[in-house]
Amino acid sequence: xxxxxxxxxxxxxxxxxxxxxxxxxxAAVAVGYPFDTVKVRFQNPHIASKYRSTTHxxxxxxxxxxxxxxxxxxxxxxxxxxxxxxxxFASYRSLLRAQLDSDxxxxxxxxxxxxxxxxxxxxxxxxxxxxxxKVHQQSLVxxxxxxxxxxxxxxxxxxxxxxxxxxxxxxxxxxxxxxxxYGAYFAAYEATLRFWPRPHRxxxxxxxxxxSAEVDSTLAxxxxxxxxxxxxTAGVAGWVVTFPFDVVKTRVQSTPAGAPDNPYxxxxxxxxxxxxAEGVGVFFRGLAPTLIRAVPVNMVTFVTFEAVVHLCS
Length: 313
What we know:
By secondary structure, this protein is mainly alpha-helical. It has helices spanning 14-43, 54-65, 75-98, 109-143, 152-167, 172-179, 182-195, 211-215, 217-221, 224-253, 267-278, 287-312.
């Protein structure tokens, strides 16, 4: 039987990939958003001192604001992140299939890595404007704490009036370099499944090329612990490889393009200026909580994706 990456390209409609990826993205947001809420509370200088630790922050928010306090503001991420996740999974399978000589060819981990990296470059066309808006919104609110919070539409109008279309793609190089990490992301998932001991598989009397046989492959040959472990490993691998570029991206996008003497003018100038001022450690600042969040989020992402593809087919 074949793993996810080895599944016959013709057996699964790209629309199913997109739908499954979208549902998986919704599940990932639901699981990961409380971690984002805690992270934002710690980053806010006006309330950070209220929380002694991550656990204390979780308990305090739940006690004072109930569970929904952890999910405040989740509407926007639920609207944007799931469709992007759908595009990621659909693009990945298409790029992987383009490298294979036939549908029966088993892709190598190198081919999987290349397909994932290409997927990251494609997705950066969408993630760059989205993350720029988020960074600008947070920065503008921080510099004017007494004013009411700006909406996404306010930020979009500001960027459009100030810099035009080009302004929405400030930091795209660093974003693309970060999102190339999808290569390690998918390769780590597939490698974990390939090396994980498989349970005994009963004889399948269906045609080998039937859609139902193909989409059952991963679920039939791997246990749920294997799928969860592979998803968690993928999340960690994807961030470890490219996290420094996430730091660079944030610094580039948080400063105006035309500011005089701006050390964060470009990706390279940001790397050089950050290293000179703060050393190599700056490129891994915030990695620990990011990895903690990545494990459960990507466990849920992959297991949900596999389950939805299975049900839809």
